[in-house]
Every structure is written in C-alpha cells, then in structure tokens.
Design brief:
Blueprint lengths: L1 E6 L6 H10 L3 E4 H11 L1 H11 L12 H10 L3 H8 L3 H14 L4 E5 L3 H4 L7 E6 L2 H12 L3 H10 L12 E4 L4 H18 L1
Parallel strand pairs: 1-3, 1-4, 2-3, 4-5
Helix pairs in contact: 1-10, 2-3, 3-5, 4-5
C-alpha cells in the first residue's frame, strides 16, 4: 500500500484533491477528524483537556464541545496548550488507521493535514503532496465556503507557515490557480503515478 501525505494552507484546495482521490478509491484520513476522535476516545487526552480547559470541553452527552475548544485555543491564544495534549497521540492513531486501511485491501492511503510538515516523522509516508494557490484565490474560496470576513481569513493565513517555502520538502506540488476541473485533472495525474508504484 502506498501512503501519501497532503498538505497546504487554508483555501488551497487540499480537501478537493483528497475528495477526488477518495472517489478514485483511496482511503482518505483527515487529521482534524482524527484529532477529534482522539479527544473523545483517549482517556488520558480527555482528562488533560478537562484539567486544562475545564468541564465545558465536553457536552453533556460526552461529545466534544468543538466551539468552546476552538474559542479557548484560537481566541484566547492557547493553541500550543491544545496541541501539546493532542499531537503526541496522533502518530499512533494515524498508524492504526494505516493498518486498518491495509487490512481492508486499500492500495493507497492518504493523510490530509495542514500541520503535516511540522508533525511528520521522517520516512513515515511514501510521498508528500503540497497544494498551493495564490493568496487572493485562497481568500476568495474561504469566503465562499464559510462566510468568514476578509480580516479573519488573512489572520488565519498569517498564522500558518509560508507553504511556498516548503516546496523542496515535498515530492509533488499542485498549483491550484485555475478551475475546479483543472485541479481535479492534476490530482488524477498524480494519483495514477501512485497507482503505478503500488
């Protein structure tokens, strides 16, 4: 099974690439979804979240209070505290998902993560794909997607790494400044190259 990491900034189009690969038959795992799963299912993480951010971290039914935690992390400047609790558990959780995908007979496993390059253990994935887009295009896409203000999006972009400077750390770069169809076509070409390597 070929393992692939996908990264890129907000609004770059990495989720669209992953969706296309999922349609083509890949097992796609999103790091944010995995982190939420870890927060709810890992007793150590759950306890640390409550100790650090309070009982309001979870709803009455035991589900994650994502709005509250996002507010605590991003608006109160406590992202590092949240990451320190969750990130150490992510490699093992991702490894379990890779094993599950292999057992289910998937040929290609895709891991989508904005912080992939920060948290990646060297050699843990076969390929890394970086999706890039011009800032004005990214802002425009995010505004259409979730009605955030221009200032809010600019602020979120400023907190992410400069992905343009990361091109030498990856195996493939997809530039997404054209149409949706063009992006899907680029994604399909790279996917076929993975298929040849399995």
């Amino acid at each position: 099974m070929v393992t692939v990491g996908v990264t890129g900034g907000i609004g770059s189009g990495k989720s669209t690439v992953c969706r296309r690969w999922s349609e083509l038959g890949a097992y796609v795992l999103n790091a944010d979804e995995l982190a939420k799963q870890v927060m709810v299912t890992d007793p150590e993480v759950k306890k640390a979240l409550i100790d650090t951010f309070g009982e309001a971290s979870f709803n009455g039914d035991g589900s994650l209070n994502t709005e509250y935690l996002a507010e605590q992390a991003f608006e109160k400047g406590r992202v590092k505290a949240l990451n320190a609790i969750v990130h150490p558990k992510m490699p093992a959780a991702a490894a379990r998902e890779i094993k599950k995908a292999a057992e289910q007979g998937y040929d290609i496993f895709v891991y989508e993560a904005a912080l992939l390059l920060e948290n990646l253990e060297p050699g843990s994935l076969d390929y890394i794909v970086l999706v890039l887009a011009d800032e004005d295009k990214r802002i425009n896409r995010v505004q259409k997607r979730d009605s955030s203000s221009f200032e809010e999006i600019k602020q979120r972009i400023s907190k992410q790494r400069d992905f343009e400077k990361a091109t030498e750390k990856v195996d493939h770069v997809i530039r997404n400044n054209g149409t949706l169809e063009e992006l899907k076509k680029k994604a399909e070409i790279i996917y076929q190259s993975f298929k040849r390597d399995e």
